[in-house]
Design goal:
Tetracycline Repressor, domain 2, 216 residues, Arc Repressor Mutant, subunit A, single chain, 9 helices, 71% helix
C-alpha cells in the first residue's frame, strides 16, 4: 500500500541544514498547538513563538496557516498508515484462521488510532470546511479499509455470509465507527470512559467474528 500523500504539496520542505531544523521546529510547534487546543484555533504568531522561528520563515515555507495544518495532517496520515499496515501484516503472519485474525486486527487498528487521536481529532474537525484535508483523510481511510478487508478475505471459506466481500466491508465500517466515536473523532465529543476501551475492543472483535461466521 502506498503512503498517503496530499493532492497538492502543502509546503516547500527543505532537505538539509539549518533550514531543515527550523522546518522541523515549525511542524512540531503546530502539532503541539493542535494537541493543546484540540482545533486549529491558533495563530501563526503563536506558532512562531512556540517553534522559535520567525514569521518570515513560516511564510517562506507555507502560503497560509491552512497549508501548515495540511502539512501536519500529511505526516499524521503517513504515520497512521504505516502503523496500520504493520498491524495487518503482523496479524496475517500470526493468525491461523478467521477468528484469530479478527481480534488481532481490531486491537491493532484501535491502538494505532488511539496513539494519534489527539492530532486526528482536530484534523477531522478541519475536514468539515477544508476539502483538501477531507480528501486526504478519505483516501487514507479507504486504503486502510481495503487492506484490512483483503486480509479478512484470505479466509473467505470461513465467512458464511452470502456476500463475503460486502460483509467484510460492512464489518470494518461498523467497527471503525464505534472506535472513532469513542475516540471523539468528528464534530461530536467522544464517549470514551476510562477502563472501557479494552472492553470495547474485545466486544467489537467478538461481534465481527460472530457476524462473519454466521450464515445469512
Amino acid at each position: 500500500m502506498n503512503e498517503i500523500q496530499l493532492a497538492v504539496a502543502p509546503s516547500r520542505e527543505p532537505q538539509q541544514g539549518r533550514s531543515r531544523a527550523s522546518y522541523e521546529r515549525l511542524i512540531a510547534a503546530a502539532e503541539k498547538l493542535l494537541r493543546e487546543r484540540g482545533s486549529n484555533e491558533f495563530t501563526l504568531q503563536e506558532v512562531s513563538k512556540v517553534g522559535k522561528v520567525s514569521i518570515g520563515s513560516i511564510y517562506n515555507r507555507f502560503d497560509s496557516k491552512d497549508d501548515l495544518v495540511r502539512a501536519v495532517q500529511s505526516r499524521v496520515l503517513i504515520a497512521v498508515d504505516r502503523e496500520q499496515r504493520e498491524v495487518v501484516e503482523a496479524a496475517e503472519a500470526r493468525a491461523g484462521h478467521l477468528h484469530e485474525l479478527v481480534p488481532m486486527l481490531i486491537d491493532g487498528i484501535a491502538e494505532a488510532l488511539r496513539r494519534h487521536a489527539d492530532l486526528m481529532r482536530p484534523m477531522m474537525l478541519q475536514a468539515v470546511s477544508d476539502p483538501v484535508v477531507s480528501e486526504a483523510g478519505k483516501r487514507s481511510y479507504e486504503q486502510v479499509e481495503a487492506m484490512v478487508c483483503a486480509a479478512l478475505l484470505t479466509y473467505r471459506s470461513e465467512i458464511r455470509r452470502a456476500d463475503p466481500d460486502r460483509a467484510v466491508h460492512a464489518a470494518y465500517r461498523i467497527a471503525y465507527a464505534a472506535l472513532a466515536r469513542d475516540l471523539g473523532f468528528g464534530a461530536a465529543p467522544g464517549y470514551h470512559v476510562a477502563g472501557e476501551w479494552q472492553a470495547l475492543k474485545e466486544t467489537l472483535g467478538d461481534m465481527v467474528s460472530a457476524y462473519l461466521g454466521s450464515a445469512t
